[in-house]
């Protein structure tokens, strides 16, 4: 089974708890047939999804997948098709 994981890292602030910035990564599983899952978030300091991706795996609701970066024109096409929610 193959799928694409579209990700984006951004910062945000906890309101009304102060002005300190925090990083988060949202990710969405996108299937080759055009279906996609609801986006989810990963927050530090644990960064569970990031840690898995760095080890070359993604543990999703449909099982554990091998993970590898997508680059170039395929990356650009996937971002345009499945980018930010």
Question: In brief, what are we looking at here?
Answer:
The chain has 85 residues and is of the alpha+beta class.
List the uncertain runs: none
Multimeric status of the protein:
single chain
Mean pLDDT: 83
Largest sheet: 3 strands, antiparallel
Give the count of structural domains.
1
* Tally of helical runs: 2
Distance between the termini: 24 Å
| Cross-sheet strand order for the largest sheet | 1-2-3
Helicity range of the residues?
10-25%
Globally, the shape reads: globular
Strand content: 35-45%
Helix-strand string: EEEHEEH
The helix/strand class is: alpha+beta
Please count the beta strands (DSSP E, at least 2 residues each). Answer: 5
Question: For the CA atoms, what is the radius of gyration?
Answer: 14 Å
Could you explain the architecture of this structure?
The protein has 85 residues and is an alpha+beta fold. The chain has one domain. The protein is 21% helix and 38% strand. It contains two helices and five strands; from the N terminus they run βββαββα. It has a three-stranded antiparallel sheet. Strands 4-5 form a two-stranded antiparallel sheet. Strand 4 and strand 5 form a beta hairpin. It is globular and about 45 Å long. The mean pLDDT is 83.
């Amino acid at each position: 089974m193959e799928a694409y994981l579209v990700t984006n890292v951004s910062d945000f602030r906890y309101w009304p708890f102060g002005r300190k910035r925090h990083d988060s990564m949202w990710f969405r599983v996108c299937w080759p047939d055009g279906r996609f899952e609801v986006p989810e978030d990963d927050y530090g300091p644990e960064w569970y999804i990031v840690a898995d991706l760095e080890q070359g795996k993604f543990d999703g609701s449909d099982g554990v997948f091998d993970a590898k970066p997508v680059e170039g024109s395929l990356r650009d096409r996937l971002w345009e098709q499945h980018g930010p929610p």
